Amino acid sequence: MKKNIAILGSTGSIGSQAIEVIRSNPELFSIEVLSAQNNYKKLIEQAGEFQPNVVVIGNEKHYKKVKSELGNTDIKIFSGEDALSQIVEFDNIDLVLTAMVGFSGLKPTLNAIAHGKNIALANKETLVVAGDLITKLAREKGVNIYPVDSEHSAIFQCIAGEFDNPIECIYLTASGGPFRGKNKKSLANATKEAALKHPNWDMGSKITVDSASMMNKGLEVIEAKWLFALKPQQIKVIVHPQSIIHSIVQFQDGSMKAQMGLPDMKLPIQYALTYPKRIKSSFPRFNFADYPELTFEKPDTETFKNLELAYKAMEKGGNIPCALNAANEIAVSAFLDDNINFLQISDVIEYCIENTKLITQPLYEDYHKTDNETRQFANEYINKLK
Ligand code: MG
User: Which residues, 6+ apart, have CB-to-CB distance to 385 below 8 Å?
Assistant: First the structure.
């Protein structure tokens, strides 16, 4: 029996790599849904190759172009945000890969879980924003959430078979990004071209800037809290510039398990799609001679404030991580539009989380409101900085 997959965000970096994994294993998977926000050309190309049941183009202004290209096939074509949320209910979907960017992934993810679909989760922002809602609903519906993020996949792989053994702590590894070792003075003038050049991983632009600013690790700390039901003090971050150890679990007896391999997102994607099985792959193998040294250092939270801000937001809880995420989304896009400098990304986020009113037990509507208000708030603050 093939597994029927819905890919939300199929034209982005994770979506495209998931397509590669599926293309290499046609006997295991078939694609039921493909969706993209703006990249209709690539969506049409993918739909032509995989003939899914449904495609969804998020941005309604591209609907006509998709319709005219695919109108003479059996593929059903939908457009808009609501369509995306509803499509995940389809009976013949076995697994939903959530690979879109940012807050927009929340509604479709919640709806997929509400309809009992297992999730391969790449859209970490949804867990940062509303981890309590998502994990509670998943427990209620008996739904599994398989992490796609490489660090969380590593933790997941390390605890396989250890279900009754409590975790003492985990170490999320961070490459340190392109600005590792830099001081504040040089970062004030850091260009977006430099921020977009990640030393080890080839990823989308939002997450690459997040890696440069250490916010990616901050978001991952919060993501880990929800995925593995951990307390903030159990989650540690260690900089490991080679990105070979993808993360580490330490158990009660002090034993540490690490998951290693060359940095290649196709591995965690494939594991999320085939869990609990491991299947053959032709991904390049690690060669010890290429890495005579694996090194580790403490993160520089003086220079890179975002990691501390994320811990702070996590400790405050409630809707504050949602505000952190919204402020970061706005700040990153302002940085990419040359409206603020690199260090001001943290200033925007700090200002927003300090000035958000805490709601301790938020509902979906509260998250939605916090997200909207924070975006507005962040934009106003950025306008003052300009
Ligand atoms: Mg990661």
Answer: 339, 340, 344, 347, 348
